[in-house]
Amino acid sequence: MTTFSDPPPASGPPNQPFNLGMLINDTRYRGYTFQFIALIALIFFFGWLVSNAIYNLAALGQDINFSFLGQPASYEIDQTLIPYTSTDTHMRAAFVGLLNTLLVAFLGCITATIFGVLAGVLRLSKNWLVAKVMSVYVEIFRNIPVLIWIVIISAVMSQALPQPRAFRGEDATATMVLWDSVAFTNRGVYIPAPVWNPGSGIVVAVFVLSIIGIFVFRRYAKNLLFNTGKLLPVGRISLAIFFVPTLLAFFVMGRPIGLDYPELGGFNFRGGINIRGTLIALWFALALYTGAFIAENVRAGILAVSKGQTEAAAALGMRPNRIMSLIILPQALRVIIPPVISQYLNLTKNSSLAAAIGYMDLTGTLGGVTLNQTGRSFECVLLLMLFYLLISLSISALMNLYNNAVKLKER
Amino acid sequence: MSDTHASAAFVRTEEIPPSPPPVSEVGIVNWLRSNLFYSIPSSILTLLTAAFIYWLSSILMPWMFNGVWDANSIRDCREILDGAIGGCFAVIAERWPQLIFGNYPNEEYWRAVLAFVGLFVALAPVLFFKLPRKMLWFTGLFPFIAYWLIWGGSAWVSVMALVGVVVGYVAFKALEERSFFGAIVAALFATLLFWIFISPLAVNALSSVVALSLPQVESRFIGGFMINFILGTSGIALSLPLGIALALGRQSNLPIIKGVCVVFIEFIRGVPLITLLFVASVMLAYFLPPGTSFDLVLRVIIMITLFASAYIAEAIRGGLAALPRGQYEAGDSLGLDYWQSMRLIILPQALKISIPSIVNIAIGLFKDTTLVSIISMFDMLGMIQGPILSSTEWFGVYWELLGFAGVLFFVFCYGISQYSQWLERQLATEHR
């Protein structure tokens, strides 16, 4: 009777010779076979795509080369962070666009975080009216496409605001706000520009040092609390460090930093900084839209901390705001941060919708005007993707570092 | 002694009727106190919010309720309003067909409407699993019917496409016993071969016998909210299987397969959708064999499907990772092979876990279909920004049109999210 004999050992007897059938039937080799086939198929697929591309480009008399980046761009960009004229190269135009993308992403992320945290916390408020208003905000902004928001706010900026000439004359229909320093016009918002006189460097240096000082102080206060149990009024002292030294330095140096107010001259405002309506539209649309998503993440994060934690802290005699800052937030942040990072990434990628309203970001310059002028769609789209990929990867790398710092340390 | 005690004692024999609670503890006063004015900061917040609501509605209400619904142009609207504040909603009434159907020929609207109604019939058994399962047959047939209804042309194209799928299914059934994966590959090959080699001949032959065709509508005439719907539904439907395959590939222990999947997912997730749409509109033509030209709508569907599948793959990966190890081990201990344990044990649970995120992706994708307006397709937003706002009659009617588009998207997206919450409650199997 051989029916109940042992099965052959899983690793296979060493004396069994290798045959071709084992490539399919033996689990040890099957994986390699499949991968090999997949690799070959992939190489053929890409080879097919590339050969098609080469053939098509040759048929159109084109080639792939990036020399167009060195040619003069000959188009204007209205919102620039670095000096740029239309005689500069396409490369510089693309760089200006990249900086504009980063600018709107940076401003948008900060504003979205503020909106999101406010709305998320207020949605959990005991105050019925506030909680309801915040859930209406979240639902409305989450369920309407961001592109529609961008177009709506851009229409507000360009259609609903007065023309600069409305500010002129005796019977001006529009006035500047905030002590005649900010003008909302349909050509953008004019705000005062800082003027750096000699000696301003010292004020800035003092300001930077006091910021560092705040971090050092908070660390010291934390150690003091953990080691001796002594509690310092951290908030008030931080506030003092933030303002007092800088203001002192400002007046000691003889007020070196002034403001250049925008003034109406001729047909338009002169002086100050002009923030274009397109930038504001993109910035606020993205911030409000992403803020609604962040609000949900914040709410979920706070709800994820079990109620027992609050009660335990209360039983120890902690005051509500200390419970929030020492018990709830550190635990909630671990839940909140990963999804908020992907919201930052989404915001950055959504900033490419600038193309719809004519804000000259990376998509507007490299993927828009440059592409249309030079007809180099292949190279432009490739570079565009590469830039966005780089931005995305670096944001997620940076944020993962932070995430690792706050995540639960388990044994 | 005892009777003095008895006389001094007082024992109440009847209950005092309950007295009403103090005024401050009941009714609207108590509600206001405990919900709106329970502390000084809260009172301030309440007053600020109320002021904000009053300000917003004082702007919006006259505009909405004083609106003009019957006029031929914005000048007519202004004349009727005569300086008063009010929206010019007449544009929505007049351009309604354009907003919904784009430039689809007037006399063929019934086809689009039929396809739209059919979509809901087809979706019903998928969305509400208590409906009779027989309805799924219609769901299977619907893509072919909808294609024929919307694009028109010979019905035999759709029929042959369907026959190709049936051929694939037969091949799959024939080989399923031997190897699940091999059967899938064979079925795909069979379908493709049928579509490429047999169906063009068959379509020609059959059309010459019985024409059975609707007037053809070219893709460039399809627009408005209809194209948002077409792109959204087909994008999600097609990206689900691709997403599952990518998620499994990413979890696989075969390094090359895993690597390919990781690179694909990270690449797609790292670039904005708009660059992929640029690829669809300007670059994809380069990669196709010379002489072939894809329809723009088809190219956009391909790119949107690739885009959504990367996100869905991540959602499903989350579901796969959330399953306890014991479930995988249970499959192994039952002696199931990889595909069996995936199909019978792992994927049903993983998909259930990932329903909320898949629905979020679906909503996001539906909203993102407005992006095609940037590559000059006339979806709803493209229609508003292009033909309607640039027409002389309606130049300057921004708020009404954009508000209408917003409301329409809100209704659908909010509906989907409410549905997903209902579904989550239905599928909750753990006892709490």
From TrEMBL, chain A:
It is found in: Cell inner membrane; Cell membrane. Keywords: Amino-acid transport, Cell membrane, Membrane, Transmembrane, Transmembrane helix, Transport. One of its GO terms (biological process) is amino acid transport. One of its GO terms (cellular component) is ATP-binding cassette (ABC) transporter complex. The chain crosses the membrane at residues 32-50, 93-119, 140-161, 202-221, 233-253, 273-295, 381-402. GO terms for molecular function: transmembrane transporter activity. Residues 98-399 form the ABC transmembrane type-1 domain. InterPro entries: AA_ABC_transptr_permease_3TM (IPR010065), ArtM/GltK/GlnP/TcyL/YhdX-like (IPR043429), MetI-like (IPR000515), MetI-like_sf (IPR035906). It is a multi-pass membrane protein. The keyword Transport applies. PANTHER family: AMINO-ACID ABC TRANSPORTER PERMEASE PROTEIN YHDX-RELATED (PTHR30614:SF37), MEMBRANE COMPONENT OF AMINO ACID ABC TRANSPORTER (PTHR30614). Belongs to the binding-protein-dependent transport system permease family. HisMQ subfamily. This is Glutamate/glutamine/aspartate/asparagine ABC transport system permease. It comes from Dinoroseobacter shibae (strain DSM 16493 / NCIMB 14021 / DFL 12). The gene is bztB.
TrEMBL record, chain B:
PROSITE patterns: ABC_TM1 (PS50928). SUPFAM superfamilies: MetI-like. It is found in: Cell inner membrane; Cell membrane. Residues 225-420 form the ABC transmembrane type-1 domain. The chain crosses the membrane at residues 109-128, 179-201, 221-248, 260-288, 300-323, 344-365, 397-417. One of its GO terms (cellular component) is ATP-binding cassette (ABC) transporter complex. It comes from the Bacteria. Belongs to the binding-protein-dependent transport system permease family. HisMQ subfamily. This is Glutamate/glutamine/aspartate/asparagine ABC transport system permease. It comes from Dinoroseobacter shibae (strain DSM 16493 / NCIMB 14021 / DFL 12). The lineage of its organism: Bacteria, Pseudomonadati, Pseudomonadota, Alphaproteobacteria, Rhodobacterales. The gene is bztC.
